[in-house]
Amino acid sequence: MRFKDLSQEAVQSQWRKWRNVIRDVLVEYNENAFHGRGSIQENAFKERTYLLLETKRECLYVFPIPGNTLIFRLYQHKLPKEDLKSSFGKPHEEDLIGTFGLGIGGVEADDTDVKKAIRLYLKSVLRTVHKNYWLKSA
User: Fold this and answer.
1) Which of 92, 93, 98, 100 is least surrounded by CB atoms within 10 angstroms?
2) pLDDT tens digit string along 104-131?
3) 57 Cβ partners below 8 Å, 6+ apart?
C-alpha cells in the first residue's frame, strides 16, 4: 500500500469509481431478498460518503476506508450519526451482527470483466451474510 492511498481524497476517488457497482448489487439484493422493501441511501458523514441498505430489522453499511478497501457491516439497527465516526474505524460491537471487507487496490473499476467478477463475488458474499447472519437475527 502506498501512503498516498491513505488520504481522504484517495479514498473518495476510489469510492466514486466503485459506488455504482456496489449500489447496483445492493439494489438487486434488496429486490431478491426483501422484495424491494428495504431502503438504499447514499449518505455522507464529515466528507465521507457511504451506502446504507436499511430494512425493518437490520442495516447494511458499506464504508470506503483508507488503503483501497470497502467495509461491509451489518448492524441490528440504524446507527445514530454521532456513532458513525467509530464505525469508519472499529465496529460498534454491541450492535454489530457481521462484517467483511473487500480490497479494491489495483483493480480497474472500468474493466467490464472486473466489474462482472466483483459483482459475482459480492452476490456470493451477500448470500452468505444473508444466510448466516440476517436470517438468524430474524
Assistant:
1) 93
2) 777 776 778 888 888 888 888 888 877 8
3) 76, 77, 137, 138
Q: Which helix (H) or strand (E) holds 122?
A: helix 112-129
The residues near 9 (Cβ < 8 Å, ≥ 6 apart) are none
3-state secondary structure of 93: coil
1-36 burial string, b = 16+ CB within 10 Å, else e? eeeebeeeebbbebbeebbebbbebbeebbeebbee
Which secondary-structure segment (H or E) carries 48? strand 48-54
Q: Dihedral (C-alpha) 26, 33, 96, 90: value to the nearest 10 degrees?
A: -20
Cell of 12: 473518495
- Model-level pTM? 0.81
**Residue 72 amino acid letter:** F
- Asked if residues 67 and 78 have their Cβ atoms less than 8 Å apart, the reply is no
Contact 70, 101 (CB under 8 A): yes
